[in-house]
């Protein structure tokens, strides 16, 4: 299933679409390898349940740490660790307001991946 998600993301990528439209010959293996490496990196970030939950929540809008802790029932040390990973990878950005740090999704590609995962795995309400 992960393989099919990877292929879907890869073939539906606007970057790959532009690349394919701009060439009349076969896809350059070097460019494809680079795209595959970026996709694998994104999928590795999503392969942790806590990070996936965090990103799903943040895809709905900016949240502070205390809101995320309450909404997701993730203990504060784990929450801080996983937010640190996402921040180090440039997937989330922060904004400080007084004593609170607010997080939001900074990577538009990640929002697209989350939308695909939502369509495939989350029940309709």
From TrEMBL:
One Pfam family of this chain: HTH_5
The UniProt record lists the keyword Transcription regulation: yes
Sequence ranges assigned to domain HTH arsR-type in this UniProt record: 32-125
SUPFAM superfamilies the record matches: Winged helix' DNA-binding domain
Gene3D superfamilies: Winged helix-like DNA-binding domain superfamily/Winged helix DNA-binding domain (1.10.10.10)
Keywords, in A-Z order: DNA-binding, Transcription, Transcription regulation
GO molecular function: DNA binding; DNA-binding transcription factor activity
InterPro entries: ArsR-like_HTH (IPR011991), HTH_ArsR_DNA-bd_dom (IPR001845), Metal_resp_trans_reg (IPR051011), WH-like_DNA-bd_sf (IPR036388), WH_DNA-bd_sf (IPR036390)
Residue ranges crossing the lipid bilayer per the database entry: none
The keyword Transcription is assigned to this record: yes
PROSITE patterns: HTH_ARSR_2 (PS50987)
Designated name of the protein: Transcriptional regulator, ArsR family
Native organism: Methylibium petroleiphilum (strain ATCC BAA-1232 / LMG 22953 / PM1)
């Amino acid at each position: 299933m992960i393989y099919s998600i990877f292929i879907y993301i890869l073939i539906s990528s606007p970057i790959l679409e532009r690349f394919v439209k701009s060439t009349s010959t076969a896809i350059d293996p070097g460019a494809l390898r680079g795209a595959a490496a970026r996709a694998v990196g994104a999928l590795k970030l999503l392969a942790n349940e806590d990070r996936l939950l965090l990103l799903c929540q943040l895809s709905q809008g900016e949240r502070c740490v205390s809101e995320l802790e309450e909404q997701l029932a993730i203990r504060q040390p784990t929450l801080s660790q996983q937010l640190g990973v996402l921040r180090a990878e440039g997937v989330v950005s922060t904004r400080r307001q007084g004593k609170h740090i607010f997080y939001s999704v900074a990577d538009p590609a990640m929002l697209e991946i989350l939308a695909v995962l939502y369509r495939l795995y989350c029940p309709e309400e």
